Amino acid sequence: MSGAAAKDWTATQERSNMLALRTIAWIATRLGRPAARALLHPISLYYLIFAPGPRRQSRRYLGRALGRPATVADLYRHIHAFASVALDRIWFASGRLDVFDMHISGSALVDRTLEEGRGGFLVGAHLGSFEALHAVGTSHPGLRVAMVMYPDNARMIHSVLQALSPDFELSIIPIGQRGSALAIRDWVEGGGLAGLLGDRFMPSKAVHGSSIEQTFFGLPAQFTDGPMRLAMMLKSHVIFMVGLYRGGKRYDVRFESLADFRHPPDDLAERESLVRAAVAEYVRRLEALCREAPYNWFNFYDYWQEDAAA
After folding, report:
1. Cys-Cys crosslink for 175: which of 35, 88, 206, 290, Cβ 3.0 to 4.6 Å?
2. Which string of DSSP letters, residue by residue, matches the chain?
3. Are 145 and 195 in contact (CB under 8 A)?
4. Residue 255: C-alpha distances to residues 86, 105, 130, 252 (Å)
5. What's the pLDDT tens digit per position in 15-24?
C-alpha cells in the first residue's frame, strides 16, 4: 500500500466517519433512539447520492461479498448499516445495554484469560461494532481493554463519546509514536487486553510489522502482521472478536481463539511460519464473516487499490 493510500484511511476516511457520528449523535441526544433511527434513512440517502467515492467502493466490495452485482438497494443497506452502528456507539458508551438484544458466544475465552492473570490481544475488524465489547465488560468487572489506535482518530472518537456520556472513559494506546510497543507490552503483561482492528495495513514501526499480501475475495490486498508479531513476542493469546449488527437492536457478539502464542517455539523459522499462518487465518475468517454479514464491513475506501491501477 502506498503512503498516499495509507493516508487516505488514516485521515480522510476517519474525518468523514466522525462527521456522520457527530450528526447522528446530535440527533440522538435530542430526540432519542427511535427518532434518531428514523432519521437515519434520509441521512443514508444523502450519503448514497452525494458520496460517489464511498459509493463506488461499496459497490465493488458488495459485488464480491454477495457474489452478484450490487444494486442501489444493496448500497443503501450498506450505508444504513454503518449509520446504525455509528448511532449505537452512543448507547454502548453510556452503558445503556438494556436497549439491545445481545447474543454473546465464546466469552469463556475472556474468563480464562482473566483467570490466568495475564492479558492478551483482541483482534477485530471494521466489521459490525467493536464497541459491543461493552456487553461483556458489564459482566466482567475486572476486564481491562485498551484500544490501540492512531492518536488523532482516537481523540476525535473519544471527544464525541465523552461529550455524550461524561462518565465514559476509553483506555487508548496510541500507535505511531516512540514507546508505543512498550506501552502495549506493559498493558498486556499487567493483565489487560489490547484491542486492535486488523483489516487495515498500519504503516507504523510502533507495531513492528510489515505488509503481507493476502488473497481477499480473490484479489491481492495488504494486511499487517504487526499484531501477530507483538503477540508472539509477548507470548500472548490472540482472540478474534466481532459484534455483528443484525438489524434493529440485535447484535451477535462472538469471541473465538485465533492464535495461541503463549508457548512459542524456539526456532525462528517456526515462529515466522506461525505468524504468517495466523495472518492467513485472520483473513480467512474475515472473508467468511463478510460473506455471512456483507453489509457489516465498513471500509469505504479503495481497499484493493483499483483506482490507482485504472
Report:
1. 206
2. --HHHHHIIIIIIHHHHHHHHHHHHHHHHHH-HHHHHHHHHHHHHHHHHH-HHHHHHHHHHHHHHHTSPPPHHHHHHHHHHHHHHHHHHHHHHTT-GGGSEEEEE-THHHHHHHHHT--EEEEE-SBB-GGGGHHHHTT-TT--EEEEE-HHHHHHHHHHHHHH-TT---EEEE-SSTTHHHHHHHHHHTTPEEEEE-SS----GGGT--EEEEEETTEEEEEE-HHHHHHHHTT-EEEEEEEEE-STTEEEEEEEEEEE-SS--S-HHHHHHHHHHHHHHHHHHHHHHHHHSGGGB---S-TT-HHHH-
3. yes
4. 21, 6, 11, 10
5. 445 566 666 6
Instruction: Give the model's pLDDT for residue 127.
Output: 97
**pLDDT tens across 62-91, in order?**
999 999 999 999 999 999 999 999 889 888
